[in-house]
Amino acid sequence: MELAMSSPLFAKLSALFSSDAACLEGLERVRGRGHERLRVVAYRLGGLRYSWAPRFRLAVLLLLRDKFPELVGAIEVVDPTVAPVERRAMEELGCIVTTSPALCLVVEEPTLIFMPYADRVFFENLLILNWSPDKLGKIVVLGHSFSTMVKMLELSISKQEKCGVNEQREKVKRVLAIPSYVQELELCAEISGLFDNPLLGDEYPYELNQ
Residues 96, 77: contact at Cβ < 8 Å? Predict the structure, then answer.
C-alpha cells in the first residue's frame, strides 16, 4: 500500500480527481444530475499471491476509494479463477469479488472500468454491449489509451490485409471507431508491469515506442 501511495500514478490520479478541470467536468457528465458515485469494476487484476503488479493495481483502486469517497463507491473485482485465500483477502478490504466468466458487463450506472491490458476482444465486447450514447456516457476506463490501441491494431490489420486476410477490421470496428468519441487523459505509462502485455496479436511495433 505504501508503494502505491507514493507512486507517480496515484499522485497523477489524485491530481486529476481533485483539481483537473477537464477530468472533473468529465466525471460530472458521467455521474449525471444525481451525482452518483462511480462503481469500480476491475478486470484482469491478476493473482495477488504471485506478483507485485496485481497488489499494486488493487492498492491504487483502494486508495482512490478511500481518498475520494464522494466520487468512488464500491470496488468489484471480476476474476473467474480467483483463489479462495485471495478472495477472502479482497473481501476483508471491502471489495466485492465476482467469479462470473462473462467477458464484460452491460453498464447501468456510472462505472469506472479498470482493465490493465489492451485486449481487443474485451473492449470490442464491452462496446457491443454498451453501444448507445446513454451507456457509453456512463463509462470511465482506467487503462491503455484507445488511440494507441487503434494505432497498433491498424498496423496489425494492414499487415493482414496485405496477405489477403480482410475480416479482422470488421471484428474490431467499434474499437477502431471509439477514439473519436472519447476524451483521453494521460497518466503514467512508464510504470512497467502496471499496464502491459497488450494482447493485440503483435508485439509493440518499434515506431510506436518513439
Answer: yes
